[in-house]
């Protein structure tokens, strides 16, 4: 393993456009602006599998607040305890996948184009011994999937673009939505350079013969190329300025909403304090927060509780297999989950499933949350329905809908 880290040592950030037909394991696709209104919005996807049975990948720029220690609290994973976990998508088993670029790591399996998975034991040893830093490895929870031929069709239609990313982008620990904008800027710069080079070649091929004419043609060529690069650079700078202005506007709006909420909460606290000082036992009015805010608060808290229970119950069981942990460790986690009466997840939070629909190609079920009325209903995907009984109800609703 004397060449460990050589393929991923560079921190340079670059992006290159690639032809659509180059799509395959190890490729990266970039979502076209404005094509989505969910997790594919401003997303970058690393393709892990692609073939006749469909396509599977992980979202590169959806960092979560969780760490490896949070989702796989096994002492064996201590060298990676502080590594961030990225949300790979909403499909597949509740497992964690380790992705890296270390071709000499024993046990590593090449996905394609310099991207590898597996080799967890060797990676742990290399990090413990100081041969590699832990930030050379990226961890993803779940994945995204496409049906056979669905992704090539989306690429042909312009919804996605096939690109290539530097190891700094691929395996770096930064993975916020802003990464999408950074990659687009790099692509624009690369396309500007390619356009200038193509213009130069074309002008040279059609340029007139003779030393004087050739010199004039060369000067004209340089001027044209310079104008094109300047124009494209101006577009990039304009895009950056627009993006900066939009972020500033969003930040100002968020601050205004926060300030308004804080004012309402402070008023409520002052009311409670006055009631206590006056010795009155009158119940304070939660409606000071407003019906819309209360409904949103109820939906958020119910969903948060359901997803927390889902993670506590399922990730403790499944992460062992995905990370290559010992079977006895996995069995112990499963036994602990089975002994926990709250391990059935949303059984304490979901009151009923009311309807089924297909929204933007995804199956969703209308959920009535326990303790809330119709105003708290939300449409959820199958991963929130974590008990066997809820999944049976979901399948029945789907069949009744004729889907």
Automatic annotation (TrEMBL):
Chromo domain location: 348-403
Keyword Coiled coil attached: yes
Keywords for this protein: Coiled coil
Stored SUPFAM superfamilies: Chromo domain-like, VC0467-like
Coiled coil: 246-278
Record flagged with keyword Kinase: no
InterPro entries noted in UniProt: AlgH-like, Chromo-like_dom_sf, Chromo/chromo_shadow_dom
A Pfam family reported for this protein in Swiss-Prot or TrEMBL: DUF179
Protein name: Chromo domain-containing protein
């Amino acid at each position: 393993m004397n060449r460990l880290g050589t393929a991923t040592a560079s921190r340079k950030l670059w992006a290159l456009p690639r032809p659509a037909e180059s799509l395959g394991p190890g490729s990266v696709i970039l979502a076209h602006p404005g094509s989505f209104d969910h997790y594919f919005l401003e997303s970058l996807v690393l393709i892990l599998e692609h073939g006749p049975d469909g396509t599977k990948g992980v979202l590169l720029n959806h960092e979560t607040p969780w760490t490896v220690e949070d989702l796989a609290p096994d002492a064996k994973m201590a060298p990676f305890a502080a590594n961030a976990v990225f949300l790979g998508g909403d499909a597949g088993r509740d497992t964690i996948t380790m992705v890296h670029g270390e071709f000499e790591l024993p046990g590593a399996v090449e996905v394609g184009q310099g991207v590898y998975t597996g080799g967890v034991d060797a990676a742990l040893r290399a990090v413990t011994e100081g041969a590699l830093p832990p930030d050379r490895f990226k961890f993803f929870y779940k994945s995204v999937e496409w049906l056979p031929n669905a992704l090539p069709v989306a690429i042909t239609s312009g919804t996605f673009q096939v690109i290539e990313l530097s190891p700094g982008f691929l395996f770096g620990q930064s993975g916020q939505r802003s990464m999408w904008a950074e990659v687009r800027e790099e692509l624009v710069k690369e396309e500007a350079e390619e356009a200038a080079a193509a213009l130069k070649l074309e002008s040279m091929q059609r340029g007139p013969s003779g030393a004087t004419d050739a010199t004039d043609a060369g000067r004209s060529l340089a001027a044209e190329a310079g104008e094109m690069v300047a124009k494209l650079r101006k577009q990039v700078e304009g895009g950056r300025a627009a993006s900066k202005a939009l972020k500033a506007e969003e930040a100002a709006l968020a601050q205004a909403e926060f300030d308004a909420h804080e004012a309402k909460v402070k008023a409520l606290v002052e009311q409670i304090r006055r009631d206590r000082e006056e010795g009155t036992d009158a119940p304070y009015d939660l409606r000071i927060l407003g019906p819309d805010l209360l409904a949103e608060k109820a939906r958020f808290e119910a969903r948060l509780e359901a997803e927390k229970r889902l993670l506590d119950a399922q990730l403790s069981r499944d992460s062992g297999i995905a990370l290559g942990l010992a079977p006895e460790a996995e069995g112990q986690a499963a036994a602990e989950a089975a002994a926990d009466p709250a391990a059935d997840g949303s059984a304490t939070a979901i009151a009923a499933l009311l309807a089924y629909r297909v929204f933007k190609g995804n199956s969703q079920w209308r959920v009535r949350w326990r303790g809330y009325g119709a105003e708290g209903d939300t449409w959820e995907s199958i991963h929130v329905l974590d008990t066997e009984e809820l999944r049976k109800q979901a399948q029945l609703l789907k069949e009744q809908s004729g889907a």
